[in-house]
Amino acid sequence: MKLSPPFASSACLAALMLALSVPAARAASLDAIYDVTLLGLSLGKANLSGGIDGASYKLDVNAKLTGLVGSFTGGRGSGAATGNLNGSRLSPATFAVSSANSSESRTVRMALDRNAVQALAIEPPIDAKPDRVPLKDEHQRNIMDPLSAFLMPVEVSGRGSGAAACNRTLAIFDGAARYDIKLSYSGTREIKIDGYSGPVSVCQARYVPIAGHRSLRPSTKFMAENKEISTWLAPVAGTNMMLPVRISVKTMIGTAVIEASSFKVDPGVTATATRN
Question: What does pTM read for this prediction?
Answer without folding.
Answer: 0.83
